[in-house]
């Protein structure tokens, strides 16, 4: 799994903003003491504490224990390298219970096919990734939760472009967020796009972060990947 290099202003508000944007606060359902409660757990929830590798059949990645079948799209412009990850915890420091599942990463530079879509970026473009995580679900992720998230993001100083509950988002139900991290002058420096979708006692998270104003075909690839990330677990 690639490590994304970042260079941010060293201030507390920005660090908090990044943590909240990633859903690190306990009430978000991605950590906290409630994840350690005893009781019957689903196979998917057990997998978080003891992850095992799946298998790849052609261009399809399958991890039966967590109900995953991911068919890698034939055409991707930015996130071209899709692989099952090593299922590590704590890749995001602020989210120690998030386990990486699958990641589609870029090579950093704009390809010729990307340029066909009008994209342009210098050859040293930052390497970015669209990563899917699995985490314990500690609270409902529903329409009523949107107000809670909005308050948390605003208190963290994030600019909210979109924050909404969707009951049919590429055949998934959950909360979509598109957020900007700003510098001390209020200028957007980074953008985070995230979709959280729960199944029983677990929560899937699709997340990508990139420089604000990045002109690569990020949204095109997001729309291509999401329908092919299929989960067969009880909601």
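^ Assign residues to that structure.
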């Amino acid at each position: 799994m690639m490590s994304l290099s970042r260079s941010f202003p060293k201030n507390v508000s920005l660090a908090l903003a990044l943590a909240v944007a990633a859903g690190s606060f306990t009430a978000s359902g991605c950590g906290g003491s409630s994840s350690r409660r005893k009781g019957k757990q689903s196979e998917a929830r057990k997998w978080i504490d003891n992850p095992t590798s799946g298998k790849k059949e052609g261009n399809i990645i399958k991890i039966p224990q967590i109900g995953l079948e991911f068919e890698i799209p034939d055409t991707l412009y930015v996130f071209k390298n899709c692989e099952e990850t090593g299922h590590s915890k704590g890749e995001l420091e602020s989210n120690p219970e998030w386990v990486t599942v699958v990641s589609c990463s870029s090579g950093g530079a704009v390809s010729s096919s990307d340029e066909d879509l009008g994209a342009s970026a210098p050859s040293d473009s930052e390497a970015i990734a669209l990563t899917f995580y699995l985490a314990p679900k500690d609270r409902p992720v529903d329409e009523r939760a949107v107000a809670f998230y909005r308050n948390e993001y605003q208190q963290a100083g994030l600019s909210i472009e979109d924050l909404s509950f969707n009951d049919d988002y590429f055949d998934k139900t959950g909360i979509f967020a598109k957020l900007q991290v700003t510098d001390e002058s209020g200028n957007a420096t980074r953008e985070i796009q995230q979709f959280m979708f729960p199944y029983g006692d677990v929560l899937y998270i699709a997340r990508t972060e990139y420089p604000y104003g990045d002109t690569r075909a990020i949204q095109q690839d997001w729309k291509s990947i999401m329908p092919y990330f299929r989960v067969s677990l009880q909601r």
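The first helix runs from residue 12 to 21.
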